[in-house]
Amino acid sequence: MQKYMTEIRWGLIFTAVMLLWIWVEQLTGLHGRHIAQHATYTNLFAIPAILVYVLALRQKKQRDYNGIMSWKQGMQAGLLITLVVVLLSPAAQWLAHMVISPNYFLNMQAYVVTEGMMTTEQALKYFSLTNYMLQSVIGAAIMGVLTSVIVAFFLRSKG
Fold it and tell me: How far, in Å, CA of 48 to CA of 17, rounded?
């Protein structure tokens, strides 16, 4: 377990950064009065998400591999971080939508129905805690694997 502490720590850091991002979205009105812009600005989370993986794998390379890390070692570390994030995702979604921004689903449902993007039934089903928990697990797995592949490639030791 000790040899995986870097990955566990960075999985926890990633989850904390995600929750902080959601809190900032809520504070800036993206879950309320500026909900029409939510879809645009929430995608900017890719920047801190990638940055966390870069910092994590750089630390793994320096601390655990004495500055020399293969692509495979970087991938394994990235996948373990992703596993931690995936396992924490449902709890993080619960915290995000029950504590940080409890009106998000109601506001988003009202917005998409008013704008004619979805029917009421579709909005209720899509913008629900259960669906967001499922989406977060799938999204974290897919994006974590892709990010791990790319970041490990750039941080691998050459030679």
Answer: 8
